[in-house]
Design goal:
Elements (H helix, E strand, L loop, with lengths): L11 H12 L2 E2 L11 H12 L12 H15 L9 E4 L1 H13 L5 E6 L5 H7 L3 E6 L9 H6 L5 E7 L11 H13 L3 E5 L19 H4 L2 E6 H4 L8 E4 L2 H14 L5 H10 L9 H15 L15 E5 L8 H12 L1 E2 L1 E2 L12 E5 L4 H12 L2
Parallel strand pairs: 1-10, 3-4, 3-5, 5-6, 6-7
Antiparallel strand pairs: 2-8, 7-8, 9-12, 11-12
Bound molecules: 4'-deoxy-4'-aminopyridoxal-5'-phosphate and glutamine.
Glutamine binds next to loops.
Length: 378
């Protein structure tokens, strides 16, 4: 048999974006902005290309960019990452996550994954013959039950994967959640992947509880991040992994024979751009305003919701409108009403259906208004 992943089909993001295109629907499914990022960043990429940064970048990434990242992490979270040994630039967070799993999961190792989860974790675990152990999170709050997590740990448990702010629910891990994660991972000697791609998209004055804030946790954690999410350029596919030297040495063994290094001019441009310390500051307010506008526009619709606390996704519960499954409902909404969303049951390992769809509000005001008009008409 050729297939190493016989159960897998095409990712829901490709399926829904394609359906949106076919039916001319407004696309609030796949998570990407429909507006441009900062034109300065584009100018800086052009400048880097003209200055000749068109050959291979150093294997772990541009040193100046790694230094910017280490100093951001250390300033924001009181950590102690070294740009030399602890940071590697990757082709998006996806490659960082894949590489961390490839570098550390052996056949039969068990990996705890929360469900619903972003869809790239489980296939990588399976590919390296690990076994996922699912912990189900539930609406309305999607909070983890750490006792259940601890009960699911056995002699083969090697890793736990967490993601806060959480895609798709918009839930945040509290300080107490992170302390529990730290306690459990230290006690049971687990590795951790902390997927923090939405670290700067966090609302209502909450702070991001990065794994980097918790020293004993940080010692065993691969933090993964995405510049695509942070700077509205998801197509640039650039991100990074931060981990202590012992973990990063293993990570780089895989990285150097997978991609070796990633897009050089974009790394140079980001290194220059990040010298401006203001760069991240407005992002949370920018997206909070979009969330608030969107929720305001649909406040009298028949959809129910808990406001997203972070990410640029909002879940909507449609159970007052239809008793159909969420895949059928999302298809109907796209084909018949012209609005594409993501059915959330596909993020649940057991396919459990909470009758919720996920909508991306990283969109221009007019797009959100058009989408709201459709949601209000149902
Ligand atoms: N993790 C989560 C939770 C995501 O939503 C995404 C999508 N951006 C990724 C990882 C992958 O990020 P990237 O596009 O940088 O590969
Ligand atoms: N992270 C984005 C989302 O959750 C999509 C990324 C992708 O298309 N693979 O919608």
């Amino acid at each position: 048999m050729i297939s190493k992943l016989p159960e897998l089909t095409t990712t829901i993001f490709t399926v829904m974006s394609k359906m949106a295109q076919e039916y001319g629907a407004i696309n609030l499914s796949q998570g990407f902005p429909d507006f441009h990022g900062d034109p300065l960043l584009v100018d800086l990429v052009e400048r880097a290309m003209r200055e000749g940064y068109n050959q291979y970048a150093p294997m772990p990434g541009d040193p100046q960019l790694r230094a910017q990242i280490a100093s951001k992490l250390n300033n924001n979270y009181g950590s102690n990452y070294s740009e030399e040994t602890d940071i590697t630039i990757t082709a998006g967070a996806t490659q960082a996550i894949f590489t961390a799993i490839a570098a550390s999961i052996h056949k039969g190792d068990e990996v705890i994954v929360f469900s619903p989860a972003y869809d790239c974790y489980e296939p990588a675990v399976s590919l390296f013959e690990g076994v996922s152990r699912q912990i189900q999170l539930r609406p309305p709050n999607y909070s983890p039950d750490w006792e259940e997590v601890e009960r699911s740990i056995g002699p083969k448990t090697k890793m736990i994967i967490v993601n806060s702010p959480h895609n798709p629910s918009g839930m945040l891990f509290s300080k107490e959640d992170m302390e529990e994660l730290q306690r459990i991972s230290v006690k049971h000697q687990l590795l951790v992947i902390s997927d923090e791609v939405y670290e700067h998209i966090i609302f209502d004055g909450n702070i991001h509880n990065s794994a980097a804030r918790f020293p004993e946790l940080a010692e065993r954690t691969f933090i993964t991040a995405s510049f695509g999410k942070t700077f509205h350029n998801t197509g640039w596919k650039i991100g990074y992994c931060a981990a202590p030297k012992v973990l990063m040495e293993e990570f780089r063994k895989v990285h150097q024979y997978n991609v070796f290094s990633v897009n050089h001019p974009i790394q140079k441009a980001l290194a220059t751009y990040l010298q401006d310390a203001q760069t991240y500051e407005d992002l949370a307010a920018f997206y909070q305003q979009k969330r608030d506008l969107f929720l305001d526009l649909i406040s009298s619709s028949r959809f129910k919701y808990v406001p997203s606390k972070g990410t640029y996704f909002q879940l909507l519960d449609y159970s007052e409108i239809s008793s159909e499954g969420d895949i059928a409902f999302a298809e109907w909404l796209t084909k018949e009403k012209g609005l594409a969303s993501i059915p959330t049951s596909v993020f649940n390992a057991n396919g459990e259906d909470f009758h919720q769809i996920r909508l991306c509000f990283a969109k221009k005001e007019e797009t959100l208004e058009q989408a709201a008009a459709i949601l209000n008409s149902i």
